[in-house]
């Protein structure tokens, strides 16, 4: 059962398919980011890259059963002010759609940020759904969140699954959430390089400012959604949640501040928060690129539950 992977990034779909030992073959993939390709080829050196999706010759693309992927989420991301139709990246959705229309695979799986739902007063999402229906697919969609599938990250994403109308009745059901959660403290590294630690001076400067982008993640909670920006998530490792609340309410003196051990989450902790195995990203990359790659990926925990359900659905039908 062959699939084509679009906007493949580092790629979460391939990784999950292999981990679950599903009988799937990647015919080609499409990715242009040179750093993401380094990590991709580290794990899948035999896969062929079509590079720029806007330049793919459909006539040279082999047939496949499933189209996997997304379109870049920056058009709808909260951190990019949800520009929607005003953002040029939005146009890449129609390149994904063209492949779907011309190749007519039996299924597709499309993922994006949840803000795509409400962007432009729901008009964006309505357009997307209508376009999928126009090219002859029945669809189902659902928001799935990493924190609902064991793991300690609050990461809601919209998943759309389409099935060609000419096939059997489309009664696929999405996985349901699991009532058990890891806490952030459960995945932390025991030994961390000193370069990830925050200086006393910076802690005091933060305390005296009103700039809150440095806010610490609470160890007994799930981590906030990993995002692609300069400010990596931070934690206070030697104090309880109540102490952190006092910090933000300006109820500490200078002596108390100097007892804080504050550090960034490491790239390897980002890997764990996204469900990848340790050292998944290419070792030659800078931390900046590792943070970017992992923050911009799909959570493996969610994909495992989704693809197991999807695989079982297809087996039952065939």
Q: Mind summarizing the main beta sheet?
A: 6 strands, mixed
The CATH class assignment of the largest domain is Alpha Beta
Number of helical segments with 4 or more residues: 11
Measured between the Cα atoms of the first and last residue, the distance is: 12 Å
The name of the CATH superfamily of the largest domain reads: Vaccinia Virus protein VP39
How would you describe the oligomerization state of the chains in this entry? single chain
H and E string: EHEHEHEHHEEHEEHHEHHH
Counted up, domains total 2
Q: Please report which band the strand proportion falls in: under 5%, 5-15%, 15-25%, 25-35%, 35-45% or over 45%.
A: 5-15%
Principal-axis shape: elongated
What is the third-level CATH name, the topology of the largest domain?
A: Rossmann fold
Please state the second-level CATH architecture of the largest domain: 3-Layer(aba) Sandwich
Strand runs, count: 9
pLDDT under 50 segments (min length 5)? Answer: none
How do the strands of the widest beta sheet line up side by side? 2-1-3-4-6-5
Fraction of residues in H or I helices: 25-40%
Mean pLDDT across all amino acids: 86
Task: Please give the radius of gyration in angstroms.
Answer: 21 Å
| Structural class by SSE content | alpha/beta
């Amino acid at each position: 059962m062959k699939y084509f992977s679009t906007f493949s990034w580092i790629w979460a779909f391939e990784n999950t398919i292999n981990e679950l030992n599903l009988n799937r073959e990647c015919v080609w993939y499409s990715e242009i980011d040179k750093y993401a390709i380094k990590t991709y080829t580290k794990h899948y050196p035999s896969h062929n890259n079509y590079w720029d999706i806007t330049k793919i010759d459909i006539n040279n693309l082999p047939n496949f059963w499933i189209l996997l992927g997304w379109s870049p989420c920056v058009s709808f991301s909260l951190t990019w002010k949800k520009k929607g139709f005003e953002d040029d990246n939005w146009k890449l959705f129609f390149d994904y759609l063209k492949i779907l229309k011309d190749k007519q695979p039996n299924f597709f799986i499309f993922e994006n940020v949840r803000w795509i739902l409400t962007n432009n007063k729901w008009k964006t999402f309505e357009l997307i759904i209508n376009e999928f229906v126009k090219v002859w697919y029945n669809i189902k969609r659902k928001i799935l969140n990493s924190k609902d599938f064991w793991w300690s990250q609050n990461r809601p994403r919209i998943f759309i699954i389409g099935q060609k109308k000419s096939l059997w009745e489309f009664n696929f059901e999405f996985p349901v959430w699991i009532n058990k959660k890891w806490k952030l403290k459960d995945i932390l590294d025991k030994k961390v390089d000193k370069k990830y630690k925050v200086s006393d001076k910076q802690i005091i400067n933060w305390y005296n400012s009103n700039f809150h982008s440095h806010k610490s993640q609470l160890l007994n909670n799930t981590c906030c959604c990993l995002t692609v920006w300069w400010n990596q998530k931070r934690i206070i490792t030697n104090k309880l949640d109540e102490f952190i609340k006092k910090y933000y309410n300006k109820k500490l003196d200078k002596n108390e501040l100097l007892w804080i051990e504050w550090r960034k989450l490491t790239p390897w902790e980002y890997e764990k928060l996204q469900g990848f195995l340790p050292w998944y990203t290419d070792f030659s990359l800078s931390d900046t690129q590792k943070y970017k790659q992992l923050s911009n990926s799909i959570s493996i925990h969610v994909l495992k539950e989704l693809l197991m359900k999807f695989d079982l659905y297809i087996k039952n039908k065939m």
